[in-house]
Amino acid sequence: MNKISRKGFLKIAAAAAMSGVTAGALAACESASSAASSAVSSGAGSVAAGATYIPGTYEGTAQGISSTVKVTMTFSETAVTDVVVDTSGETASYGAAAADELRQQLLEAGSAEIDGVSGSTITSDAVMKAAQSCYAQAKGEAVVTSVQLPSGDENDWLGTEPDIDEAAITETWDTDIVIVGAGNGGMCAAAYAAQKGLNFRIIEQNSAVMETRHWYGTIDSSEAQKQGVPPVDRAELLSEISRSMGGRCDQRVVKTWIDESAAMHDFVAGILESAPYNYTCNLTLGDEAKWPDDTQISQTKLMFPVQQVDYSSAEKPRNVVFQEYIESLGYAVDFHTGLAKLEKDGDGRITGLIAQNTEDGHFIRINASQGVLLACGGYAGNPYMMEKLDPLGTSVTTACSYAPADKGYGIRAAIWAGAHLDAEAAPVLFDRGLVAPGVDSGYVESASSFGGKAFPGTVGQYNPGSQPFLKVNRHGERFMNESQEYDNASHASFQQPGHVYAMIHDANFREDVDRFHTIGCSALTRYIPGMMESQLEQYEAEGLIMKADTIEELADKMGFAGADKDTFIATVERYNELYDAQKDEDFGKPASRLSAIRTAPFYGCWLGASLLCSLQGISITPNCQAKDDRNEPIPGLYVTGDMSGSFFQNNYPCVMGGTACGRTLTFAIKAIKQMAGLE
């Protein structure tokens, strides 16, 4: 942690004023990295007549993948005479190994603009930033030592709250409510606050609103009533969610969503279905929303989907519509503005926050008289947090569903301010992480990724992976009832070699998929014409789908050998016997979900979990107020979205589609109502 001293700041303030030189850290509510620099020896003063530099040795630092990169440069009056590049804390085979080549490039370039080293992009960029600082100092330019906003590391995912000197805060905003994050929760909160004419600011570290999650779950919405859907047994639903969470959720928090999601939908629909948009609401209902009668899910009355609605066919995503809506009412999103730390008074009330402009690095104090709403997302893009907080989910994952940008900075800022993090991980895992034979689940080294790690799979959404075809482990053994929720196969693979499994089917897959009648997003395989066919062809060409004319040939292509091959062939024969009998005596899979494997060509692939997001968050009250370690509410601090807790524990119940996003939107509105005194 670095602190800008007031004395040091004032010493250079006159030179820096009006020159655009400011604290240059890149901060965010979901990621944080920055440059920090200072002179380490002679060089104070100005460039002599006829000279280019002030002779001396200067040091610059910048955040690399997993460490602070340091560059030390020695200057004569006209040239660089020596360079030392220290990347020893970076990934050994990538960033650390690039030090000599980067040093040579700096010596030859005569500037900080170098090509860098392929495969070590982040480290190369950090070296260039550090070198730029050295050049600035050697030219007598004012350099402000930056606050190093903590990115965490493998030994300390939380890090320490940054200490930001008052002199570094060059701007102040006064408002009633601050919303942090322009994603699903933040934009819904902003639209509601704008409709009510409230005094608020919404900040977002990036340059645009975040991707919209279209599908959201509601209970007894006006759309459901319009479609004639019978009312939900709310007590039964509450009990079922609690059962899915192992009793670890706060049922009062769950009830907030159950009781208030219908009003949330009315608000959303009131904007999206009105001029100038006039979008049509889609509601999953009837037979499409029903599991086959012989499935355990149907028999135990698990409800899917929970009246899931969406506007996915609309011209513009919901978050873009909300942005246009608030702008039409005279508000705007403050882009390029990231959370640095929360502020509180002597009584522990959150009074606002300090933000940082991510373009020029200057700090902004935002005073919020009525409260702060954090909607910054989870930590799926932060390997440090994933490995420490969700070791099981990490170990069974082969790919990410999308490119996760959320690094958990909002969660960490809340913890620094005294908030309590739920004790148990709750990842959203899809059984769709397609990988090549022989690839294990879990992180591998990646020089271009945050933390120097990434999951090995390149395909995060192989949708047919959610179909209940035969699944076997690396020894060719069947190990589960395949007709279960999305995350069950992934969790079950924790007990299997390599934490991966193979899925097998024959040429009659289209008939099987139609009979399986899976629902939720796995239904895409069923009702999008040619989707599975085209994916089979594409991924076969990429070596990720194996196709063969015989089971023996398929076994070879899948990597089974020796006794494992014999076991695999015997497992397929046994599975065909179970299909013929229309009774799964081994694992109890419903007859409607069994399939024969007799018609060539035969197909096989290897799968692990595909990580969508993390749902382990800050514990909250039924009013969406953050709680401290004593489970007492923290005045002035509210949370929604993937970074809010007290709801999902251990898993996301995928038989209740849209629940996570429905909760996000419902809690966003609830928090605004609470802060503004509208309830």
In brief:
This protein has about 675 residues and is α+β, with helices and mostly antiparallel strands.
Please give a structural write-up.
The structure is a single chain. With 679 residues, this protein is an alpha+beta fold. The protein is 30% helix and 20% strand. The strands form 5 sheets. Strands 6, 7, 11, 12, 13, 14, 23 and 24 form an 8-stranded mixed sheet that branches. Strands 15, 16, 19, 20, 21 and 22 form a 6-stranded mixed sheet that branches. A hairpin with a 5-residue loop joins strand 13 and strand 14 (363-374). The two termini are 42 Å apart.
DSSP E strands, number: 24
Query: What fraction of residues sit in β-strands?
Result: 15-25%
* Radius of gyration computed on alpha carbons: 28 Å
What is the chains' assembly state? single chain
What proportion of the residues is helical, as a percent range? 25-40%
Structural class assignment:
alpha+beta
Distance between the termini: 42 Å
Give the overall average pLDDT. Answer: 88
Low-confidence stretches: 1-44
Instruction: Characterize the main sheet.
Output: 8 strands, mixed
Inertia-based shape: globular
| SS field, number of helical segments | 19
